[in-house]
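User:
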Amino acid sequence: MSKEVGLYFGTFNPIHIGHLAIANHIVEHTTLEELWLVVTPHNPFKEKKTLLADNHRYQMVQIAVEDYPKLKASNIEFGMPQPNYTVNTLIYLNEKYPDYQFNLIMGEDNLQYFHKWKNYEEILNNYNIYVYPRIYSNKKEAKLINHDKVNKVNAPIMEISSTFIRNAIKNKKNIKPFFPCKVWEYMDEMNFYK
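Assistant: Predicted structure:
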């Protein structure tokens, strides 16, 4: 029997309680046995100049998940060509972990643009996708929402963005409650986003 693992890709710039709440909810309310938060060095749809160094973002994810036994930090994409595409990571992971059944985790807003991903049909044919609800502008039902491989998860809607957090820190706002304590301490000590 293969191990069911969810892959939650993101730049996690920085990781916050919204990410953790979604990840924990999905791993606790689906058939997934583990959920990996895969720190992406460079999302093809985002500018790299806004990103904190890869190792710092990975370190913060490691700190954030230490109290959650079913959540793992992953830096699997760090050694791969940039910008990275999910399909390449999935191929690599299947070779490295042949006994695992990998599943994708994504927000409903990402599903709306999933058809623009590299080799999206291959991903859709070979992997289950767990979709969590999001509030976003230009909201319309994603074409793929009723696909056999797409599972809509009834998760709490978390409207916290890393952009909001970075801007708040830059503007000297106290947003400590948005982080696990140790992540906040690490960020504060390193003067990140100030």
